[in-house]
Design brief:
It is a single chain. By secondary structure, the chain is an alpha/beta fold. It contains twelve helices and ten strands. The strands form four sheets. A three-stranded antiparallel beta sheet has the order 3-10-4. Strands 8-5-9 form a three-stranded antiparallel beta sheet, sandwiched between helices. The chain has a two-stranded parallel ribbon with strand order 1-2. Helix 1 packs across helix 8 and helix 5 crosses helix 12. The radius of gyration is 19 Å and the shape is globular.
Amino acid sequence: MIRLGQISYINCEIFNYPIKKLLKSAEYSSLGIHVIEGVPSHLNNLFLAGEIDVAPISSFAYLGGDTKLLKKLSISSFGKVQSVLFFINEDMAEIKAKLDSGTRHKIYLSSESASSVALLKILLKEKYLFNLQNLDFISFSGEGRDLPNKLLIGDLALKELCRGRESYYKRTLDLGEEWFDFTHGLPMVFGVWAHRLKVQDEKRVQELILTAKTMGLNQDFNEIVERVHLQTGLSQQVLRNYYQHLNYDFTDEHSRGLALYGEKLSGSLRLQADSL
């Protein structure tokens, strides 16, 4: 039995829906795959504990250990990602001025993704020159309604973004776009496909997931958009725009972006993010 993890966010339906179809086919049913779903942080923990064999895990978790990757696969963006968002009611310059004066400030972070937490801290420190010592980072779960600011990821982030003028928040920082600007054009790799498969299984699982990606981005795409629309209530136009901002490849550019992200993860940032 091969235990395969699936992220239960709509950004991964490009993989998830075709995989379910393929596993019912004669070509792949013999693989004996058991699917386990969860949010990124949960899958990270299951993979690192040896309780699943292959899964999309966060870049943060991958960089923290000795892990093998499936080729040509990621969850990334070149610019806006629309589902890793920092919602605020103040200008970043106003917050920095308060920090520089010694005033402490609270930042609220989703507990569902260590990669995004670490990315926000990198950007606050290196792009916006915040003194992190004067920041109190507080973890929360769910929507975090009416918090003064919040880092949201996944479906909840996209839904909050779609509230537009009805949102409680005046400003939104898209961390994919922020990273792209900060690195002068490198993609942000939010997740990679990690595995601990036997050699004979690796090739077949790699083939399965690459085939699913091709199907999800082509012949199954309209059906995926329709299904997600019915599940979430998000308009098909919003969903098509969202998927167009995502990238599921892993090229040399992705490798450089991932390596730079790893370099920016100082010991203190890693420790703070890993504690959530």
